[in-house]
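ok so i was messing around last nite and threw this chain in just to see what happens. nothing serious, just curious
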Amino acid sequence: MTSLPASSPRTAPPTATYRLQLQPDFPFAAAERAVPHLAGLGVSHLHLSPVLEAVPGSTHGYDVTDHRSVRAELGGEEGLRSLAATARAHGLGLVVDLVPNHMAASPAHNHALRAVLRDGPGSPYARWFDVDWRAGDGRLLLPVLPARLPEVRDRFRVSGGTLRLDGQEFPLRPGTEGLPLDELLDAQWYRLGWWRLARTELNYRRFFTVSDLIGVRVEDPEVFAATHAKIVELVRDGVVEGLRIDHPDGLADPQGYLEDLAEATGGRCWTVVEKILTGDETLPAAWPVAGTTGYDALRRLDGVFTDPVGAEALTGLYREFVGKAGDRGGRWEETERRAAYEVAGHDLAAETAALTRIAERICAADPALRDHAPWALRTAIRELLVRVPVYRTYRTGGEEVLTPEAARGAKAAFAVEEEAAAVDLVRELALGARGDGPEHRAFRVRFAQTSSALRAKAVEDRAFYRYTPLLSANEVGGDAGRPAVPVEEFHAYCLRIARDWPATGTVLSTHDTKRSADVRAAIAVLSQCPEVWADLLAEVAEVPAPDQHLAWTAWQTAFGLGTPDADRLVPAIVKSVREAGLRTGWTEPDEEYERAVAEFAATGPGRIPLRVASEAAFALEPHIRAHALGALLAQLTMPGVPELYQNTEREYRALVDPDNRAPFAPGPDDDRTALVRAALRLRRERPEVFGPGGTYTPLAAGGPAASHCLAFARSDAVVTAVTRLPLRLAEAGGWQDTELVLPEGHWADALDGVREFTGGPATELKLAELFAERPVALLVRTD
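result:
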């Protein structure tokens, strides 16, 4: 692979991006037809979901099968280059979603994996994958059989050096084609096993708990070169100007990978990483990227429009309503910890077993460590994993994550103090503080990778579905136990990213959000009126639900969606109970319970229009609109590069995937489309105001309703002012004499092009006047 010259000019960061979900039903040609509309919105770049070859029919593209070619089902490389040319003719560039961590574990389509299965650890492709050839019987386990081997034995067929079963294909080890079936199966470099064995017996690294996505070792220079040559070529040719890096936490060394990528692309790409930051965690400063994909911004945007007092009241109502039907009626921290234990001991049992095997080998090679029992090592690994408060450790900062306090808590699981010493050993190995041999390095890396998977599965895919007082807070990167963010904290965040990461990404809706921004806005308004929510639940109490936790979650989801739609709601609700794992699950489903869930969702939340069920509920609509517009304008004008998810230039109500991954479909403009165009036009025309080098200044209102105004200035040239908690504002008597002092100068309303205002310390602008026409304002300095 040829790297780009380090002296190549760096591409300017986008002013705004627009995410499109490519799939066979929406290929490059369809995206090309949408270019004029998207350019008219004012974005500078189209952000495309993965474009490399994937499993046929894939609707997402994250199951990459061949890094050497652009996906034929989307139109191939010719289609991508044509899209790039059309986009460029309209002033747009392309950003591409890059998936370095994993590939599809599909021998029929993954040429590299097929070679390993055929030739074993001696294959030149064996270095591509993290396979523990010393585990089990020394073969790579493929947990792909629909039942135990004896039950499917008669369905195997052998032809042309290939073993076939129900549409699946597996290459045969050379020279074994003519063996009797049982001998043939035993003679392969792989073992075909029942799919349930993946949970405990898997001996290759995978993506989270998805066994049909196998991890890729891009830390190997040869693997990196082979898997990135096509992308680098597209960058070199100007087809691609930006990269979104999917799941960097799964990589052995995220910083090293990003350094390699920056060198290969000559620093010409605007690059952001799908890094989930927890709490006050910040992105490692040494990473050569522009920032994150924006989930940290999403949490602040959602939180600043959430009422903390009402959210606490909702939590009390939730515990009373749900009772024993929920996660023991516990608090968020308790729910989170229980979920982590379950995932570590059950869902990721194969991953903790892999760590234990590495630790055992380290101990076996060191006489001073040989008395650490395997069970003690396994227990110490589990106890420390569940105490990692962020997604993973990196090259530095591990001591701040795996603290002595965490070690003391882990030791509480041991009855004998001497056996608890395994915790100290595991902590030292995880921090890289004991030995630097291959096994020591392997443990440190795999511990970090496993902690990332544990956090994602325990929080995003389990606890967020178990603890549901306010569903709008339960998004990737969110804090269900602290859904509200004070205005001061929002401003502090914006000031920090304006200083440290001015070209980071910001989002409100993505292909991974469980609920779109409009759905979350409706739910968040309930934090301003918990009594209305209690009344609504009482009104629908006659609709029998399988349990109270389900009833609360399903009705709140339906309230957010707004319009009864059983076809969309039922799959989302069934998915929610499987993810929660309280009474059913993905691998051990309770079919009777799920039928009851589906029937309830269809006949209750999927049929009854909850948002208009009462006068009080219907009266919330203007406040929902104010929240949605306020969050949108704040995102479009705050520091960072805003991304619009497909269709969100207008009202967009969507639930968890696959509902939110439907193909892009043009629709009529609404009141927010004009807002989007006005804000993005300013960003495109005034990059010095919003981009790197631009400033962010919080503006504080004065008067009785000052807390209901979120306002800031960008480079003293543009002012954003939005209404927050509008229902509470109305209950308190409106804006009254609340005022806002604009920066010095003359200002014009960018949303109507008519109104003008004067700024300066001697001039106070009445917010009742500013928000007379709409709950948001975007002002441009005209002098």
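not much to say yet. The longest strand covers residues 64-70.
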